[in-house]
Amino acid sequence: MDKITKLKIGCHVSAAGGLFNAPKNAAELGCETFQIFTRPPMGGKAPELTEENIEKFKIEMKKYNLDVFVVHCPYFVNFGSREPRIYHGSISVVSDELKRSNLLGAKYVMTHLGSGKDLGEKDALKQAKKGLTEVLKKYKGDTQFLLEIAAGSGATLGGTFEHLAELMKPLVKFKTFGGICFDTQHAFASGYDIRDKKSVAETFKKFNEIIGLKWLKMSHINDSKIELGGKKDRHDHIGDGKIGEKGFLALIRYFETLSLDMPLIFETEHDKVERDMEILKKLRNKI
Hints:
The protein is of the alpha/beta class. 39% of the residues lie in helices and 15% in strands. It has helices spanning 22-29, 51-63, 84-104, 121-137, 161-168, 184-189, 197-210, 244-257, 273-284; strands at 7-12, 33-36, 69-72, 108-111, 144-148, 177-183, 216-220, 223-224, 235-236, 262-266.
């Protein structure tokens, strides 16, 4: 990094063949930070974390001069499900992800909340708050837990600042709760404009009023294939989508004013993710 040391730029990387492969994969892509899954994201048994492979992971982190990484919970998590197996399974999996990530030394673990279509919005939010509380009541560690804003499709939980603020209410008492992961594409699809300096300021003014800027801890940096308010989760490469480079320049300028250690993580296809990161680094270094 040349100029702004607090905004570390990276992407989601593969941990195929062993979690200890992730730091090398990240370094080869030019990451300053990175994101991984510690288990199959669509379901399946989590690889065992032995003392040997935990130590190997940490050695690889040092080898490639990487000190910050984050973990994404699997996609099947759903705290709003009417099905007890899915609901209690979500509590179990997220609890386990926090423990696993803490052993590896992750800064954050973030999760999607799922859908409230089974129970209706009010009851689903109530159940989700109960489940999230159960997760943090069971967890003691240094890795912090984040809620990720959703794209707002259907009955998705967490697609608005109001939803996130409601879900956070029982969590803020826990030291292990970090706050919010702001996914640019999800927020844009949910109707929060971030295409220029003025819209970024207005969106985060709302964020501050409803949630509080102190809870903004990291961002997934994705352009959007979907128009503003399109309510679909469709990531695009930076500058190729509806947010555009102007929006990302405004975003990183705004993030820098907060003086937070903010991982900025791309979740775009690897065919152009190196280009994505280079563009964002150039925008960052213009400040």
